[in-house]
């Protein structure tokens, strides 16, 4: 039996995923130890795990370096990789939103030309161009997105919001909601055919766990 490889997005998502996996009998004690190893194995189940930057997880899965990945819906939507999204794991819930000063609400509703700052240019472009039919200029930033409307770089931002505290503290509000987000399981298309029984059993175990919780 070959190893089934699972790529996890680093951080809170990985910890919650491993906790969820343990509940369906999939564990990896190696990952709990303080080590500099990059790949961790469960020899009994023939599973391999590795941690990766969230934006890289869909790439590892698309190219078959990982059979399965767990990553946020925001990353999946932004990366647009060729893979199967098979399961909403139900944690890491937040929203992709358009935010800005309160007076921008009317500007948005009128469909006026505006500048939009975001870490997610593909999601923003899809939302404004395809769903709202609104022409905008999208400005890619890599961090502190809330700063953009405060210093005049953009009129609004597209970003993830969980509690809204940062927006509120900077005088910004949620103007429009684009979509709900949460952790998702993705699977390589070839792996789904070649390892269908093993992968389907993992999906079924996690789905049953959710139904019984």
Automatic annotation (TrEMBL):
It is an enzyme of class 2 (transferase). Pathway: Amino-acid biosynthesis; L-histidine biosynthesis; L-histidine from 5-phospho-alpha-D-ribose 1-diphosphate: step 1/9. Residues 53-207 form the ATP phosphoribosyltransferase catalytic domain. It catalyses: 1-(5-phospho-beta-D-ribosyl)-ATP + diphosphate = 5-phospho-alpha-D-ribose 1-diphosphate + ATP. GO terms for cellular component: cytoplasm. GO terms for molecular function: ATP binding; ATP phosphoribosyltransferase activity. Keywords: Amino-acid biosynthesis, ATP-binding, Cytoplasm, Glycosyltransferase, Histidine biosynthesis, Nucleotide-binding, Transferase. It is found in: Cytoplasm. Its EC number is 2.4.2.17. GO terms for biological process: L-histidine biosynthetic process. SUPFAM superfamilies: Periplasmic binding protein-like II. It comes from the Bacteria. Catalyzes the condensation of ATP and 5-phosphoribose 1-diphosphate to form N'-(5'-phosphoribosyl)-ATP (PR-ATP). Has a crucial role in the pathway because the rate of histidine biosynthesis seems to be controlled primarily by regulation of HisG enzymatic activity. Heteromultimer composed of HisG and HisZ subunits. HAMAP family: HisG_Short. Lacks the C-terminal regulatory region which is replaced by HisZ. Belongs to the ATP phosphoribosyltransferase family. Short subfamily. This is ATP phosphoribosyltransferase. It comes from Vallitalea longa. The lineage of its organism: Bacteria, Bacillati, Bacillota, Clostridia, Lachnospirales. The gene is hisG2.
